[in-house]
UniProtKB/TrEMBL annotation:
This is Protein-export membrane protein SecG. The keyword Cell membrane applies. Signal peptide: none annotated. It comes from Sulfitobacter brevis. GO terms for cellular component: plasma membrane. Belongs to the SecG family. The lineage of its organism: Bacteria, Pseudomonadati, Pseudomonadota, Alphaproteobacteria, Rhodobacterales. GO terms for molecular function: protein-transporting ATPase activity. Pfam families: SecG (PF03840). It is a multi-pass membrane protein. Keywords: Cell membrane, Membrane, Protein transport, Translocation, Transmembrane, Transmembrane helix, Transport. Residues 90-120 are annotated as: Disordered. Involved in protein export. Participates in an early event of protein translocation.
Length: 120
């Protein structure tokens, strides 16, 4: 079910992008300009404008549906529930114990070899 809604959501998103890019630019920023007469501030609704509204409503509906599905899937569990029940081991000072020092260093071929070559 979730995959079907997700595919529909992606198709709606691509369709919404395509329809918005096909619309005629009216000039002016943020819808300031545009035709529609000297008195009325609205232009006649076009087919692309109606299609934009339909796709936008579908996009919002699938977004809400995906949110509800995700919330239902994670309702019974939390990050704390997934953690192990045993706490990490503590050292004498009460801090978490560190791993062995040898495990932190890369392996060497000879541990007795000097780190700096001897000067001749």
């Amino acid at each position: 079910m979730e995959n079907v809604v997700l595919i529909i959501h992606l198709i709606l998103a691509l369709g919404l992008i395509a329809v918005v890019l096909m619309q005629r630019s009216e000039g002016g920023g943020l819808g300031v300009g545009g035709g529609g007469g000297a008195v009325s501030g609205r232009s006649a609704a076009t087919a692309l404008g109606k299609m934009t509204w339909i796709l936008a409503i579908g996009f919002i509906a699938t977004s809400i549906t995906l949110t509800i599905i995700a919330a239902e899937k994670s309702a019974g569990s939390s990050v704390i529930d997934r953690l192990s029940a045993t706490p990490p081991a503590l050292n004498e000072q009460g801090a978490p114990a560190l791993p062995e020092g040898n495990g932190l260093l890369p392996p060497t071929s000879d541990s007795s070899a000097p780190l700096v070559p001897a000067a001749d």
